[in-house]
Amino acid sequence: MAEAAPQTAKLRAEGLNKRRKAQLTGLWYVGPWIIGFLVFQFYPFLASFYYSFTDYDLFGQANLVGFKNYIHAFAEDRDFYQSLKVTFVYALIAIPARLVFALAIALMLSVRLKGVNFFRTIYYLPSILGGSVAVSVLWRFLFMKEGVVNGALSQLHIPAVDWLGSPEVSIYTLGLLAVWQFGSSMVLFLAGIKQIPQELYEAGRVDGASRFRMFFAITIPLLTPMILFNLIMQTVNAFQEFTGAFVITNGGPLKSTYLYAMKLYEEGFLYFKMGYASALSWILFIIILILTAAIFKSSNSWVHYEDGGKSI
Question: Are 248 and 111 in the same domain?
Fold first, then answer.
């Protein structure tokens, strides 16, 4: 027994050393990510909160001004409300249209056909390219007054539409660009459809249910967790949209496409009011936080889980 005790202690020490080495190895792997997160995300996050209470202009010293930036946004800046209104309109157009279109394409690609993987790849490509400046320039070329779209309409003897020059139409043109970037939502919907047990559809066919009935009684309820996730992600993306509005319309005409991100960009990098831009970014953060919380709260009444659980 006396000889066994040192041997046991030695084995424990070796096991402890192995665990420490494993932990150190893990830290080496995640270390670059942690450093990147602290330097490029966490620090700017805290710094922007501090600067939102200052008159920082990128060049001079940041002087504390209290809630002056926030008061100016809500009480004096008319463009603030215009950009907020346009962003909400854009979100109401882009989010439902993208989700419906993504679900429709996912249903089409969920069938077992030869070469269907090729079409899945093709349909996903717009999501890779959609946020780029090059695609925004292409979109502007397509929808300009003498562009390809109006050229096609003239061949059908349909009057040309001022897609980018009309305040009533331009926001819908930007919304079409958002709908075109449906690939990521489509892939998630496709994965959710594949997880639905086929026995449920077989039981529905035995009971004489139509495809339409099974879609709303089986497919949609079992896809609601995926719909919730896509809805939240697309809401966050819509309220941060910038590239399309900046490149295609530059906020015009008459600021009908003047999205909130454009307002934030101009205040920070055109007028060098970085303190005010930081305040605007925190207002946007709070708006997105409230909308996300509201979506989560409402999900208890419409999201269904197989195990009967509830969302947060």
Answer: yes
